[in-house]
Amino acid sequence: MNFKISKIILYLLLFFLLVPLFVLVIWSFSNSWPWPNMLPKDLGIRAYKHIFSFRTGTLGVLIYSIILSATVTLITIIISIPASKALGVYDFPLKKLFKILVLAPIIVPPVAVAMGIHVSFIKMGLANTFLGVVLVHLIPCIPYGVRIITSVFEGIGEKMEIQAKVLGASSLQTFFHITLPMITPGVISAASMVFIVSFSQYFLTFLIGGGKVKTLSLVMFPYIQSGDRMMASAYSIVFSLTTLMILLIMEKSIKKKYKRETDLFV
Amino acid sequence: MRKVLSILIILTLAISLVACGGNGETNEEGNVLDKDWKEIVKEAKGTEVSFYGWGGSQQTNEWIDGFLADTMKEKYDIKVNRVPMNIEDILNKMLSEKQLDSEGSIDVVWINGENFSTAKKSDLLMGTFTDVLPNFEKNLDVDSEEVKKDFGHEVDGMEAPFGKAQFVMIYDEARVDKYPVNHKELMEFAKSNKGKFTYPAPPDFTGSAFVRNIIYDIVGYENVKDLEPNKEQVKEKIMPAIGYLQELKPYLWREGKTYPATIAQLDNMYADGEVVMDMTYNPNSAEAKVRTGEFPESTRTFLFENGTIGNTHFLSIPFNSPNNPGALVLINEILSIEAQASKYDPKNWGDLPVIDNSKLSEEEKALFEEIDLGEATLPQEELLTNRIPELPADLVPIIEEIWLENIPTEGE
């Protein structure tokens, strides 16, 4: 009985998640789809022709966005792991406050802060550069990284690491052979989340990148705004498929690397 | 383990190198405008020009990425980098850069109207440059109002015409028997086709132009063009038109309780057959949308008998453009006969040319006449003879405010 209900819920969820995506796919091929037709009146590939023609350079933009978001993800994870360990394992005064403060970048609207950051970045010569955009993406990304990995550390505690140290492992050995394999599942979900957050940044990229750093969201947004539904849908499809593919690749490759070790503990 | 560490270090170094590269560029300026044209072309060779402007139209984007980029590459070895960005955002960016007097990234900006006057007032533009461009004198009527004025503001050579736009109404021939050519007929039309007509709520650009067109039709352009930007006076003058719009309201889509917020929404409503009329500030866009299949084949355009509003859109160069010579060469190329003709073709974009027809040779005229405008587009002569200039830019927001105060909508 219970089993059945949970299955129904699962399918309902899938249905509600997938149907809008499906509509998006249809729209990306529809020249016109007037009411009351159930199906589009006229199909075409205008949008994909535009996206995949070399002239418009969308493919280059796509690859550039992936590199940018991958860099952001890597840096975020590197920063998040030690921070999360501190928040998840150690006890120190005002720990609760720090935990909440980590979320501050998501709570405070980015627009309020970004203008000031832009001015400082211009002064430092970071505006309109790749590095500048990477740095500013870290702001909305780190909270996700830290929160997700913190809960993993809260779960596994410090015992395994202490055990390794007792047996004579150095700190680095402990980290790479004990800690990292254990937190890998958490790191994967954090990295996925961070990648998506970075990949879909529009406002920050556009303000700090000033058009010199051209990402997919930047190219996609004008079409959504101008109401070209076919174009907007096609870009969204390319956008979603790219993220999906990156996430799959990331999960597969990381899992493979740590497979043997994780099996020991999980 | 070492490997991971060293990869990390390399990455960090690589990233910081990228950043340094960004800082190290210096901008050798001289005074470009004093130089000989040949020298400017030579300096521009092999450089990259960043073109910033609205990027919401596939055709416009493809014209810039295609025809323009190819021509620039072949003729001058210049790479064109198009950056889609709304003009308000471009202005904000330039304002912050002005404050800190830093180097910019924009070489050419697509601009007009109020935004131009803001940019000019805040010293965001390079200066008077049009007299340097050979094609400016050669192909344009440099003394015409459309070249010298932009929404009533003196251009002073700080921007060069790019193309012309004109307000036209769109209708579906299959669903409309007789299109209305003035405000009275429009009222009749709305009454007999309840809920089948509406217009985007100002301050949407096109909706606001529709309201101005109604004002022209009822009050007359002559009577409003010299008004001071004083709300009370403007309101008094345009009240008949506002009264008309109030009367029109109950016959509109959803009884006028709400209006489409943007022209994009109205375009989509027309494409979906929810309304039978649409409007646009680009006289070729209806044809373009018929060709992409978004609009029905039976789409046509028309003008009001007393004419419709037209304006010119321009190109300018920001004060901190990193590549002045490149920007000048690009703008000059856009003013060439070939570029203007290619841009006019609805197949490519369909933007009205800024060329002075009397300066064209027979062959050049043929270039324009050969273009197949399609059924939905009105011929250029008809548009140009029924063209009324825009109001001064500072009156526009006042009219929008008066509309918002007097035409109540629900849910706001």
Automatic annotation (TrEMBL), chain A:
The UniProt entry's sequence similarity note says: Belongs to the binding-protein-dependent transport system permease family.
Give the membrane topology. Answer: Multi-pass membrane protein
Alphabetically sorted, this entry's keywords are:
Cell inner membrane, Cell membrane, Membrane, Transmembrane, Transmembrane helix, Transport
Q: Which Pfam families match?
A: BPD_transp_1 (PF00528)
Q: Where in the cell is it found?
A: Cell inner membrane; Cell membrane
Record has Cell membrane as a keyword: yes
Q: Which domain of life is it from?
A: Bacteria
Keyword Cell inner membrane listed:
yes
GO-annotated cellular components: plasma membrane
Do you know which CDD domains this protein is assigned to? TM_PBP2
Q: Where are the transmembrane segments?
A: 9-29, 61-79, 100-121, 127-146, 230-250
- Tell me the GO BP annotations in alphabetical order: transmembrane transport
Q: Which InterPro entries match?
A: MetI-like (IPR000515), MetI-like_sf (IPR035906)
Name the UniProt record assigns to this protein:
ABC transporter permease subunit
Classification via PANTHER family? INNER MEMBRANE ABC TRANSPORTER PERMEASE PROTEIN YDCV
Classification via SUPFAM superfamilies: MetI-like
Q: Where is the ABC transmembrane type-1 domain?
A: 62-250
Automatic annotation (TrEMBL), chain B:
**Keywords noted in UniProt:** Signal
Q: Where is the signal peptide?
A: 1-21
Note the superkingdom of the native organism.
Answer: Bacteria
Q: Where are the transmembrane segments?
A: none
Q: Which Pfam families match?
A: SBP_bac_8
Q: What is this protein called?
A: ABC transporter substrate-binding protein
